[in-house]
Amino acid sequence: MKAFAHLFDRLDRTTGTNAKLAALVDYFRSAQAMDAAWAVQFLTGKRLKRLVNTRELRAWTAMATGLPAWLIEDSYEQVGDLAETMHLLLPPGHSDRDTPGLADLVEEQIQPLKTLSDEQRRDAVMSLWQTLDGSERFLFNKLLTGGFRVGVSKRLVTRALAEVAGVDSTLITHRLMGRWQPTAAAFEALVAPASEADLDTATPYPFFLASPLEAEPASLGLAHEWQAEWKWDGIRAQLIRRGGETYIWSRGEELMSGRFPEIEAAAESLPDGVVLDGEILAWRDRQPLPFAVLQKRIGRKKPGPTTLKNAPVCFLAYDCLEWQGKDVRTLPLGQRLQHLGHSMSQSSALQHARPIDFSHWRELPALRDSARERGVEGLMLKRLDSPYRVGRTRGDWWKWKVEPYTFDGVLIYAQPGHGRRSGLFTDYTFAVHDQDALVPVAKAYSGLTQKEIDRLDRWIRNHTRERFGPVRSVEPVHVFELAFEGIQASPRHKSGIALRFPRIQRWREDLQVRDADHLDDLKRLLKSGGKAI
After folding, report:
1. Are 239 and 370 part of one and the same domain?
2. Long-range contacts of 91-95 (CB under 8 A, 24+ apart)
3. Among residues 13, 49, 424, 507, which one has the fewest Cβ atoms lying within 10 Å of its Cβ?
4. Model confidence over 203-239: pLDDT tens digits?
């Protein structure tokens, strides 16, 4: 654990990419395989299931410190991060004691908590608080609360692992996909030299992600060198057919077996040794249904007959990554599409996404403007000679989305953020007019500059009306323009609506509260089926 804490301190003290990379390489070269495996797990964004609730942790902190509960709560509100609050309040640990390694801490101390009684859990946690000190105890608290974050990207971690292994970083990315588990054997395989060893037949490929197109399409060069497609509004996924088995993986690396039985049944017609990239959509009569319909399927691991009937889905394939058991990602897009065409046998649950026929760039703006009427988000532009790359590599794939919907809302609530933002009010709730009242319709935490966040934070602290735990009700003074991608009815919300991907567009200091939008305006948009009003 000392080595992992030292790594955390090195990463936390610098913003330089090269310095972070060097720290990661040093750690992975020297750490024991079992510890390194868990480090990979946490550094790439995976978390432990929370085994102790925050109410218990606050109560145990009060017991360990002798402080009253109200002071623990007030300290938590001021700090904004429970793990850090506990770390600051607890008395110093015994730093001279031997501390467990990262793997031992997780596997022998944290994970067994789920089998213990309430009293045994309390005693185990409080004992570790006494054993650990400094960054080790802070990290232990972070792992307990499921809030571990550090300022490194998954791409930087894979670069470090690739340097240790002496292989290309894309191979490391591929090895980390799918059902990778934090074990000593898995880490040793992760940093092994490149070989012809077979991967797990269920392992997907790393996804290639498009970048936003901020210029006109004509800036990309000659139109005949590019392919245009619709940008579908669904779940990005890979459909794998290997060894007579079918696997469906989301872009978030979640294996979705059993959730889409109609797609799995249709995939049995695919030739063996095929991996397709595409989109899972709610689909009926050759048309996409609203994303809200697809949401009814996302959380159901075994959908029943009624759900299957009311929310039918299909896999819309637009790329082929493996053909006849061979990785074809290095082939040009045009050749990969030929393999896609040879693999497909159309069914209601398995469709081939056809390119858009166009000859000149000037034809695309009108098509893009029609996107919402077609139930899509805009256009995708792909270079015909492009390989299938890894991650968000710019230049070959671009997404040209329609402009988002916007509305003007009033800030009414704020609460602290997480991680580095835990000391600032950065999570906001916005409302619109409903007759004589302001009704909350959206929460957003992105879109402001750091200068604006700092200024708004000072204002919130000086203009708080009420406090509800970490949440503050503020004077309804400031108006913000918010963007969002879609709208749906929601009986769970007081407003009766839910907005998709709301984010702050700009601070409208030129507007008064009376100038903010009305709930009826948003409901008319809902009634129009998402069309402009």
Report:
1. yes
2. 91/64, 91/65, 92/133, 93/129, 93/130, 93/131, 93/132, 93/133, 93/134, 93/137, 94/130, 94/131, 94/133, 95/133, 95/134
3. 49
4. 899 999 999 998 999 999 999 999 999 999 899 999 9
